[in-house]
């Protein structure tokens, strides 16, 4: 089966070819992420997700290399997100009992069921 052709990076002025399904080349993905963290992210959210969270998240992901929901179904999918079962905004904590390792698909499904993504957009 043939591979999909590579697409150009979406960053203005960059013409590097990247795999389909990605928005930016490695260089510009890091730049866009740092810009988001500095300017786009809500200050309250920024306060809750600092260095301590990054250490907790990385350690939990290392101990749970596969999506816990997919694993329960007998499918091995790598962990891409660490999710809080009870969100921090609703009184949840970074405690291990409140965390679950998920793939992007399962994480999106959970957020869609809760209405998190669409409520955020409506309120802005």
UniProtKB/TrEMBL annotation:
Source organism: Dorea acetigenes
Molecular function terms from GO: endonuclease activity
Keyword Protease among record annotations: no
Name assigned to this protein: HNH endonuclease
A Pfam entry, by short name: HNH
Alphabetized InterPro entries for the sequence: HNH (IPR002711), HNH_nuc (IPR003615)
Highest taxon above the source species: Bacteria
Alphabetically ordered keywords of this record: Endonuclease, Hydrolase, Nuclease
Domain HNH nuclease: 55-108
Gene3D superfamilies xrefs: 1.10.30.50
């Amino acid at each position: 089966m043939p591979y999909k052709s590579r697409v150009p990076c979406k960053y203005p002025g960059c013409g590097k070819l990247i795999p389909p399904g990605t928005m930016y080349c490695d260089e510009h993905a890091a730049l866009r992420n740092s810009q988001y963290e500095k300017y786009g992210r809500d200050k309250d959210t920024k306060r809750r997700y600092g260095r301590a969270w990054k250490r907790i998240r990385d350690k939990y992901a290392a101990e749970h290399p596969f999506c816990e929901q997919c694993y329960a179904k007998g499918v091995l999918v790598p962990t891409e997100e660490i999710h809080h079962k009870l969100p921090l905004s609703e009184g949840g904590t970074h405690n291990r009992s409140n965390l679950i390792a998920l793939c992007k698909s399962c994480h999106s499904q959970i957020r869609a069921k809760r209405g998190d993504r669409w409520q955020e957009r409506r309120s802005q």
